[in-house]
Design goal:
extended, mainly alpha, 2 strands
């Protein structure tokens, strides 16, 4: 067993990956793996490669959201509380199936303005 300090991990591009048993939060079930950057990338690749098509699309969306949100959160911080509440309400409505598809909007607009 190798003991590695956090500074050594940073200096040598190692990542400490902790796994806790899902059945219990007991620390005696805790295992620590130390991976290099290359090992971590390979592990991520293998897990992504094993996903079925629907899970892969979901993961891709989550990954893009994470990457894009971690780049710049200043825009969200500049939004007023009422605007944030409106966005959160709209997301909830969409999640509850109360949204209107793009196709429905386009059909309505075309039928309304094609007669002009």
């Amino acid at each position: 067993m190798h003991l590695v300090t956090p500074m050594q991990c940073l200096k040598n591009n190692f990542y400490i990956v902790e796994n806790l048993s899902k059945k219990t939060n007991n620390l005696s079930n805790k295992t620590i793996n130390i991976m290099s950057t290359e090992e971590l990338k390979l592990q991520i690749f293998r897990q992504v490669d094993a996903l079925d098509a629907s899970k892969l699309k979901e993961f891709y969306g989550l990954m893009l959201n994470y990457i894009n949100s971690s780049k710049d959160i200043t825009e969200w911080l500049s939004v007023t509380e009422s605007e944030k509440q409106g966005i959160e309400d709209a997301i909830k409505e969409l999640n509850d199936g109360k949204g209107i598809t793009h196709e429905q909007v386009m059909t309505t607009i075309k039928s309304k303005y094609n007669h002009a």
